[in-house]
Design brief:
Layout: H1 10-13, H2 17-31, E1 35-40, H3 45-48, E2 53-55, H4 57-66, E3 72-76, H5 79-88, E4 94-96, H6 105-108, H7 112-123, E5 131-136, H8 141-149, E6 153-155, H9 160-170, E7 173-177, H10 180-189, E8 197-200, H11 211-216, E9 219-222, H12 234-243, E10 248-251, H13 257-262, E11 265-266, H14 269-277, E12 284-288, H15 291-300, E13 305-308, H16 324-335, H17 347-362
Parallel strand pairs: 1-2, 1-3, 3-4, 5-6, 5-7, 7-9, 8-9, 10-11, 10-12, 12-13
Helix pairs in contact: 2-16, 4-5, 8-17
The chain binds iron/sulfur cluster (SF4).
Residues 42, 78, 104-106, 138, 226-228, 290, 316, 318-319 line the site of iron/sulfur cluster.
Length: 363
């Protein structure tokens, strides 16, 4: 049964920032060692400052698993991240998402039904036992389980190239979902020729491809995308090149290949943080990723000149749903012995998804 976010009531909606902050701090102290608050890098500052640990989705899920003495894990991120944490943590731990509406549009672009349907379509024209499915970690637990059951693996934005290499050593083709752009950028970086990469358009028969093209393809890409990283375009890259040739451009690989190929560097959120933080005083950067992270890098690196690659605010609106008032509501309930918004993956799905996650960790 799908959980739905309940209205937390005016007693929370009407609280000022100062009151929320003081009450969250007090609740954290009351819950003490029982509580672990995890915050993704894209969280807004008003929530991020309460984090016990910050990071990208996988780092946070692994940290949750390592802290097996913490019964309450409040995951300030989006739904698939909380699912991954639940898969990797023990039965004695409850993973909680403060607002259940915090989903990920990209993960939602590949439902289990759709992917299973496409797999059948592929089986009608090619040998699916020679296809290795690879899913980006930004996908539902059901999709990770689908991959785990078919000898495939999960990948992240920092190891996608390694996982693709592993998959192509085991099969003739990779079926990569849900992010078209991470898949294409990784495949091109590995030297796979553009004519060996095909796009599967979900609304078309055989994804809009001929049987011949499917049989010749090495990489089949699902046509999903991140609504945030799609906001960066080649004109933004040109704008910075013309404005200031000293500015280095760094972007996330969920951006289109046009943007990635025009940038000086690309990498996961952790890689971006590392590159910017370790650059010398006076370095100039234009960064193509979510605005809360860019703004944080500006604050943490006052000796550098840091800009967003786009003049517009590229905000992850679903991450943004995690607000201090929802965090407080969760903590108030925990203090009263009630676990709200627990994210639970059923044991069969979790078992298969864990296999796919485990393969990635081995690779
Ligand atoms: S930034 Fe993109 S991929 Fe990440 S949670 Fe938001 S929509 Fe999903």
């Amino acid at each position: 049964m799908e959980l739905q976010q309940v209205d937390i009531g005016s007693e929370y909606h009407e609280l000022s920032e100062e009151v929320l902050s003081a009450r969250i701090t007090a609740r954290k102290e009351e819950l003490g060692e029982k509580l672990l608050i995890l915050c993704h890098h894209y969280q807004q500052e008003s929530v991020y400052r309460f984090a016990d640990m910050t990071g990208d989705s996988l780092k946070l899920a692994k940290h949750a698993a390592a802290c097996n003495d913490k019964p309450y894990i409040v995951f300030c991120g989006v739904h698939f991240m909380a699912e991954s944490a639940d898969i990797l943590t023990g039965d004695n731990q409850a993973v909680i998402l403060p607002d259940l509406r915090a989903g990920c549009p990209m993960a939602d672009m590949a439902s289990l039904d759709e992917v299973a349907w496409v797999w059948k379509e592929l089986a009608s024209v090619t040998a699916v036992d020679r296809i290795i499915p690879v899913t980006y970690v930004n996908s539902s637990a059901a999709i990770k389980a689908f991959v785990g059951e078919r000898h495939g693996s999960v990948c992240t934005s920092s190891n996608a190239e390694r996982v693709l290499t592993w998959a192509l050593e085991r099969g003739d083709k990779v079926f990569f979902f849900p992010d078209e752009h991470l898949g294409r950028n990784s495949a091109i970086a590995l030297g796979i020729r553009p004519e060996e990469i095909i796009l599967w358009n979900r609304d078309e028969h055989l994804g809009g491809n001929s049987e011949d093209a499917i049989n010749r393809a090495k990489v089949i890409l699902w046509n999903g995308y991140c609504t945030v990283h799609m906001q960066f375009n080649a004109a933004h890259v040109r704008m910075w090149r013309e404005k200031d040739p000293e500015v280095k451009i760094i972007v996330h690989p969920e951006c289109t290949h046009e943007v990635v190929s025009g940038a000086d560097h690309y990498g996961s959120t952790e890689n971006i943080i590392q590159a910017v933080s370790s650059s010398p005083t006076g370095a100039k950067w234009a960064i193509g990723t979510e605005i809360n992270l860019v703004n944080r890098l500006v604050r943490l690196n006052p000796d550098k000149e840091i800009h967003s690659l786009s003049p517009f605010q590229c905000l992850c609106s679903t991450m943004y749903r995690i607000k201090p008032k929802y965090l407080l509501w969760i903590l108030d309930n925990l203090v009263n012995g009630e676990v709200k918004n627990q994210i639970t993956v059923d044991p069969d799905t979790a078992k298969l998804a864990r296999i796919a996650l485990g393969r990635m960790l081995e690779i």
